[in-house]
Design goal:
The complex is a heterodimer of chains A (257) and B (326). Chain A has 257 residues and is α/β, with parallel strands linked by helices. Chain A is 42% helix and 23% strand. Classes of the chains: A alpha/beta (257), B mainly alpha (326). At the A-B interface, helix 2, helix 3, helix 4 and helix 6 of A face helix 7 and helix 8 of B.
Chain lengths: 257, 326
């Protein structure tokens, strides 16, 4: 019994089976890697766990409750947050405001907060600002808090995307290519941050990543997808030596290099 | 208070003082009625902008104004309710219709949403056109009462039937409405609307119920369009559903032009656009057939020279002045 259980998850796009009868168990506090060639269905799996896509068949059980068909905002309420592959940010907002959006679930929006500037409203405002600053401190963006998100370089935008997701207080974090396109040292920062999230906050992560070295070094367990089906699952050491994986994925990489 | 805040308060007070003084200074029924329609336009365009805060634009705002207008007119005529009751009901009905339509409509975005709103507003107009027993059909509604005597807390019984009195009533209602819209935009609610405009997928992923917040924005905007319609109805004292009249698509187009010319980035922009262009429209009355063309030329010039709209002028002046002096 896993923390996140996926049973026979299936999704079609037209006649194409993007994901076919996927079974997957992710344990609590696990860093779970999801790899496979382009078009293998990795992002589709994350989209279904995050609620953006509805599966055609199958079940997603999170923390003992079925969440298969919940829309994204209800998944977020249950502690599943998503960091997207693209730099999806609130680009005309400042860095601090970006993180404050992440606190939506803890923000009270009522008539008094709209029309009155009461003391308790101001206190709430200050508290949220402080919490958002703490998260920025954690990802190392505190000094850029007043800059516009759109002006940050790529690597810092990725960190900001992570910060927004963290503000939603997730138990399970879905990371879609967290280190792709980053410079070597930025990759290290991001990886150690993901490890710290697990150590300090007990956050479980599912990570899609093309940077295989990063995935192998980071994850406890890896599942390999090809043409929407799982072809292997196990600890990184096993995955590297699995002949099916070599053929489907790693083999191709060797041909290229 | 910082300097920007001071400027805001000064501009606001100045505008209100000007609006209060205008009919007294000019003391002409004609201009007072022009000002009344400008003030109503300001509310319509400011509420249209509320839909823009979630990143959508509506081509059917006038439909909700039409709903409000007929609701208030019919309730005073057939049910004999006072204006003080029918006006909020006009807004409420428009808001409720928007709420019901919002759930299916807000599932689509951009041009698809715009088309749905356009079709809705035309349907509402045609409903008024064809439902003869209720709305009088092509003959329209005439002879319904004006605002009449209302009891205002603190001021006692006041008669708002006169042109000037009705202007002040309109001004008060619109100012209050604009204040509400402004506070909404600056609140956490408005912040969430803007977040949805920026990246709805990301907002959803951190727990924002995107559909619900969009529907709330649409309903609030339509509520105030309904209020605008109610104010319009008892100002005109006659309603007709002709395509070219007030409830046709052109009215929405004009509202969009006010918004673009004034500048949609700030709350005050569309209101400024409405005031300036309505005045231009009035001054161009001697050459009536060219009125739309004049407005069109101004719109094009604005988009090309100051795409930020009228609110972008101070910024531009700041940048041009050093160049001109050198």
């Amino acid at each position: 019994m896993g923390y996140l259980e996926i049973r026979k998850l299936t999704r079609f796009f037209g006649g194409l089976a993007a994901v076919m009868e996927l079974d997957m168990d992710v344990g609590q506090r696990q860093l779970f890697g999801l790899i496979g060639p382009n078009g293998a269905g990795k992002s589709t799996v994350l989209n279904m766990i995050g609620g953006i896509l509805r599966p055609n068949r199958g079940q997603i059980i999170f923390d003992g409750a079925e969440v298969t068909k919940l829309p994204p905002h209800l998944k977020a309420q249950r502690g599943i947050a998503r960091v997207f592959q693209e730099n999806l940010l609130f680009s005309s907002f400042t860095v601090l405001e970006n993180v404050q959006v992440g606190y939506h679930l803890q923000t009270r929006i009522d008539l008094s907060s709209i029309f009155l500037e009461t003391r308790s409203n101001r206190i709430q405002e200050k508290e949220l600002e402080q919490k958002a600053m703490d998260i920025l401190e954690f990802v190392g963006l505190a000094q850029y808090s007043n800059e516009l998100a759109i002006n940050l370089p790529h690597g810092r935008q990725r960190l900001l995307a992570l910060a927004i997701a963290l503000a939603a207080q997730p138990q399970l974090l879905l990371l879609d290519e967290p280190v792709t396109g980053m410079a070597a040292e930025e990759v290290e920062t991001m990886l150690s941050m993901i490890r710290a999230l697990r150590e300090q906050k007990g956050i479980t992560c599912i990570i899609i990543e093309h940077n295989l070295k990063a995935v192998m070094g980071l994850c406890d367990r890896i599942a390999v997808l090809n043409f929407g089906r799982k072809i292997a699952e196990g600890p990184p050491e096993e995955i590297v030596e699995n002949p099916a994986v070599m053929e489907a994925y790693l083999g191709k990489e060797e041909d290229v290099t | 208070m910082n300097r920007a805040g001071m400027v805001k308060v000064l501009v606001c007070t100045g505008a209100i003082v000007l609006a209060i003084a205008a009919p007294l200074v000019l003391s002409s029924t004609y201009w007072t009625s022009v000002f009344t329609s400008i003030v109503i336009n300001a509310l319509l365009v400011a509420s249209l902008r509320t839909i823009l805060t979630i990143g959508e634009f509506s081509l059917g705002h006038v439909g909700f104004m039409c709903l409000g207008a007929y609701t208030s007119a019919l309730l005073t005529m057939k049910a004999g309710l006072p204006f003080g009751v029918t006006l909020p009901l006009a807004g409420l009905l428009a808001g409720l219709v928007a709420f019901a339509l919002g759930y299916p409509f807000m599932r689509v975005k951009g041009i698809y949403f715009a088309i749905l709103t356009l079709v809705t507003s035309e349907s509402i107009r045609l409903l008024a056109f064809n439902w003869r027993s209720l709305t009088g059909g092509i003959d329209g509604l005439i002879g319904f009462p004006g605002a009449g005597v209302l009891s205002i807390p603190g001021l006692g019984q006041l008669d708002f039937d006169g042109f000037t009195e009705y202007y002040y009533l309109t001004l008060a209602v619109v100012c209050a409405s604009l204040f509400i819209l402004y506070r909404l935009e600056k609140s956490k609610l408005g912040f969430t609307w803007l977040a949805i405009r920026e990246a709805d997928k990301m907002a959803g992923a951190v727990g924002v119920n995107v559909l619900r917040y969009k529907v709330i924005a649409f309903s609030i905007a339509s509520f105030f369009a309904g209020i605008g319609g109610g104010l319009f109805a008892h100002f005109e004292r006659a309603l007709g559903p002709h395509a070219t009249a007030s409830f046709g698509v052109m009215t929405t187009i004009y509202l969009l032009i006010y918004m673009v010319v004034g500048g949609k980035a700030r709350f005050v922009g569309p209101i400024m656009g409405a005031v300036v262009l309505s005045l231009v429209y009035e001054f161009a009355r001697p050459v009536e057939e060219y009125q739309p063309m004049i407005i069109g030329v101004i719109a094009i010039m604005t988009v090309m020279i100051i795409p930020e709209g009228l609110i972008g002028i101070p910024e531009k002046v700041k940048r041009w002045r050093p160049k001109l002096l050198n």
